[in-house]
Design goal:
- There is one protein chain.
- The protein has 335 residues and is α+β, with helices and mostly antiparallel strands.
- It has three domains: 89 residues, conserved putative lor/sdh protein from methanococcus maripaludis s2 fold (Beta Barrel); 111 residues, no CATH class; 79 residues, Efflux pump adaptor protein, beta barrel domain (Elongation Factor Tu (Ef-tu), domain 3), CATH 2.40.30.
- Helices cover 22% and strands 42% of the residues.
- The strands form three sheets. Strands 2-8-11-10-9-12 form a six-stranded antiparallel barrel.
- Helix 2 packs antiparallel against helix 3.
- The longest helix has 25 residues.
- The radius of gyration is 39 Å and the shape is elongated.
């Protein structure tokens, strides 16, 4: 009986010793981190947006009459045309018939008007003929515009879809683009909405001319904010007097919105959340734990980031030792 008690006590002591040793070997050291206190400072608010140059206007030249044949094309792709220049002459059968009809109606109206003045016809008959003449005149003028197709703007012919003798089928025959001025359309963050006004200057740089800068002016600010992207659309015009710029060129548009007081954080403190586009930092608490904190980034300035939201003046953010941390981890701050 006494032997069994001694044996049980020995086993218990052995188990206790093993557990104690296991606890000592599995004890985790407190992660060491470096921190930096962040503050507000003046940050120049220069924003750069990428876009593609577009024509100021793009006009499709076509005739509303779907069965008309092209009699003669007056221009070729690449030709510069002025507003009002004849570009396409369609077949004239309908036009000549309408012209003859309007001339006959004018003769009839003159004759009836003379009779009316001598009391030969009632005013009602004169008024009916005048109405018929006006409607026919309007129809004739519309037919004339669709037989002799003219350019509505000064620009360059950038597309030709048919040849002489083709039936158009109502499709565009030519395309004319107005290339002076040109237009750039960009989307700007909503926090700058109160600052962007018509007439505001913008600097434009093109990959095609890396050593040159072109001046643009804000022409139109769209009045609504896109709920998904929280941006608003802005149209900028740029003079192209030398015709160096072409639609389709890649452009970088920069605005200077002055200076703003922002919190600035070292880039080594920024963590990208895997699988999403969110950014985080670890903020040191007074009890030496860290909080995983979401931040909104602004401009990057060398090895610093502007913080738009998520941090307060005087917060201490972790700048080294981040890989061993999770939200709520106890840490040891080292220099």
């Amino acid at each position: 009986m006494k032997k069994n008690s001694v044996l049980a006590l020995s086993i218990a002591l052995l188990i206790t010793g093993c557990n104690s040793g296991r606890q000592q070997t599995t004890e985790v050291a407190v992660p060491e981190v470096k921190v930096q206190t962040v503050h507000y400072q003046s940050v120049e608010q220069e924003q750069i947006y990428t876009a593609t140059i577009t024509p100021y206007s793009r006009n499709m030249i076509s005739s509303y009459q779907t069965t008309m044949r092209i009699e003669k094309l007056m221009v070729e792709v690449g030709d510069y045309v002025t507003a009002g220049k004849l570009l396409v002459q369609m077949e004239q059968t309908n036009y000549l018939q309408a012209k003859l009809q309007i001339e006959n109606l004018k003769v009839d109206f003159g004759r009836v008007q003379a009779l009316y003045q001598t009391g030969g016809v009632p005013k009602q008959q004169l008024d009916q003929l005048k109405t018929q003449l006006d409607v026919t005149q309007e129809t004739f003028e519309n037919l004339e515009k669709n037989t002799f197709l003219k350019s509505p703007v000064s620009g360059i012919v950038t597309q030709r879809n048919f040849d002489n003798g083709d039936l158009t089928g109502g499709q565009p025959i030519l395309q004319v683009q107005q290339l002076n001025p040109l237009k750039v359309i960009i989307n700007i963050q909503e926090n700058y909405f109160p600052l962007v006004k018509a007439g505001m200057s913008a600097a434009i740089r093109l990959d095609s001319y890396p050593d040159e800068q072109f001046e643009g002016k804000v022409k139109l600010v769209y009045p609504t904010i896109d709920a998904a992207s929280h941006t608003f659309t802005t149209e900028i015009v740029v003079n192209n007097n030398q015709m160096k710029i072409r639609p389709g060129m890649f452009a970088r548009v920069s605005f200077n919105f002055g200076n703003a007081e922002r919190i600035v954080v070292p880039d080594v403190a920024i963590i990208k959340q895997s699988g999403v586009n969110d950014r985080y930092v670890y903020v040191l608490n007074n009890n030496n734990t860290v909080t995983y904190t979401k931040v909104e980034l602004g401009l990057r300035m060398g090895n610093l980031y502007e913080i738009l939201s998520g941090l307060n003046d005087g917060d201490r953010v972790v700048t080294a030792g981040i890989s061993r941390l999770v939200d709520g981890t106890n840490v040891k701050v080292v220099e």
